[in-house]
Amino acid sequence: MAWFTKASEAPLRVPTEALWNVCKKCGAYTPKDEYNANLKVCPTCGAHGRLSARERIELLADKDTFKELASEVIANDPLTFSDASGAYAEKVKATREKTKIGESIVVGTAKLDKIPVVLGAMDFRFMGGSLGSGTGERILQAAEAARKLKCPLILCTASGGARMQEGIVSLMQMAKTCAAIQRLRDEGLLYISVMTDPTTGGVSASYAMVGDLNIAEPKTLIGFAGRRVIETTIKQKLPPEFQTSEYLLEHGFLDKIVARKDLKTFLAKTIRLLTAAK
Amino acid sequence: MATKKTPAKASAKKPAPVKKPAAKKAPAKKPAAKKTATKPAAPAPEAATPEVLTNPTWETVQIARHPERPLFLDYLNAWDPEAIELHGDRLVADDPAMYAGIAKIGDERVIIVGHRKGRTPEEKVANRWGMANPDGYRKAMRIMRLAEKFQIPIVALVDTSGAFPGLDAEERGQAEAIAKNLADMSVLKTPIVVVVTGEGGSGGALGIAVGDRILMLEHAVYSVISPEGCASILWRDGKMAPVAAEALKITSAWLKKLGIVDDVIPEPKGGAHTAPAKAIETVKKAVLAAIKELKKIPVDKLVDQRYAKFAAMGRFGK
């Protein structure tokens, strides 16, 4: 290689993202290990970053107690859907390989501070956490498992809503999941919905909102219609705090906002108080 | 079917002249829908949609949204002009976008709920084009509870482009209102017959559409998102709506095939608006037949079957 071609090579640099977390809310830089140790919460502004399903489970389940259920249920392609950027089947396959999970939710049995529970956690990385037929089926199986084991069900949501690529079948998952949860509740069992950023559209309008307790992390986006859609419809600007967990608490749709570091303790305590679990 | 005056918005959506999509792949779709779509009432030149983009599904969308298509009150007034409307959610408001009341269809007492789009421009504005607020969903649920209490079947007519996306709606918990209806309707101990008569728009439709029999008019559509919304997200171009509509498989023939609707109610040739009285009578017969059938099933078994029906949706190839 001639000496004068060397200059065109990219200068040696370590990408910022490898060492630092840049907060999406306030822009503060935090060393990655410090950020991770802080449970992916920005130490400067308190913004709660997104956790993967496995990270969420690790946060809530006692060590080595989580046993995954319905892992064989994976995303379907009922419409053989394809859009401008290609086939849905291909995209979902790539997502599966990247995230190492079969659907946008991971469910299973676990111990939460020694209390047996059925726990589910959504993963926003999987097609925006959208509610597909596989997601709905996994939730239904989780609810039925909780009913069989007579233990509480906890679902942590992180989703943009229904999965367009599965069309009407996705919409029906809203009814399906709500039906399964209602049966559980009718048998006197506890269902706690933990909303994390974001919980919108068809997921907010189904299993996320029908908890015996509706809990959310701070500063979480929760709402039905998209901000832009509303602004276009009513032709006015919306306040910045609109559709945050604080806004929902104020309007009476959340029982409590709980910071991530306190979540496990809070859940254990409320389950014990409500169900007299040991 | 009062007035011919429709707002500009509606007239712009009149069916485009039918043109067989030349280069487009035509998916397996019941040919019946294709044929009947070939006689739109008044073909108008379509500015927004290039002709090449039109396809049978998009024509169905135009018929489902046709300004003269029978609306909730057309059905109800024909079935029972003396039906009693019941108002209010007992919390904050009475939402005109959602009708709830007691009626007699033939010899059958029913609780009837449905989206009320409005016919005149004034009604449309007042009813938010049939896009209900949380108060509407809560009112519907309150009245449906009466049906359970007195063992009366429920008839729900679905025709909305979606739940209203507004500031008040969010503030008063649109998501919670719909979610609650889904959960509560799934265990309601009385027969529920749902008919998608026009547009089945996403969660706003589903909010009153959990039932034992889901019927759908031949040229109605039922979708997770509007074709325009889907096109602007997945194609980054709202004008691709016809293509999105086809990809979303929102026609009655597809929904039947996907196991979402139980039966498709045929419409007069060209769509329900060409012979409204006939269409309204056909729907009445279908509703009464469904009620008759459902009343034979003991109510606990009925609720179990309803659960099994929705649980099966989205299970494929097992």
Description:
- The complex is a heterodimer of chains A (278) and B (318).
- Chain A is of the alpha/beta class.
- In chain A, helix 5 runs parallel beside helix 6 (167-186).
- Chain A has helices spanning 16-19, 32-37, 53-60, 88-99, 133-149, 167-186, 201-204, 227-234, 245-250, 260-275, and strands spanning 20-22, 29-31, 67-69, 82-83, 86-87, 105-112, 115-122, 153-159, 191-200, 213-216, 222-223, 256-257.
- With 318 residues, chain B is an alpha/beta fold.
- Chain B is 40% helix and 14% strand.
- In chain B, helix 3 crosses helix 11, helix 4 crosses helix 13 (276-295) and helix 10 (227-234) packs across helix 11.
- The interface between A and B is large, with 62 and 53 residues.
- Quote the average pLDDT of chain A: 93
Based on DSSP secondary structure assignment, what is the total number of beta strands of chain A? 12
Summarize the biggest pleated sheet of chain A: 8 strands, mixed
Q: Encode the helix/strand succession of chain B as letters.
A: HHHHEEEHHEHHEHEEHHHEHH
N-end to C-end Cα span of chain A: 71 Å
Count of discrete alpha- or pi-helical segments spanning 4 or more residues of chain B: 14
Q: Structural class given helices, strands, pairing of chain A?
A: alpha/beta
Helix content of chain A: 25-40%
Kindly estimate the percentage of residues of chain B that lie in beta strands according to DSSP: 5-15%
Cα-atom Rg of chain A, whole angstroms? 20 Å
Distance between the termini of chain B: 48 Å
**Strand content range of chain A:** 15-25%
Radius of gyration of chain B: 19 Å
Q: Would you tell me the structural class of the helices and strands of chain B? A: alpha/beta
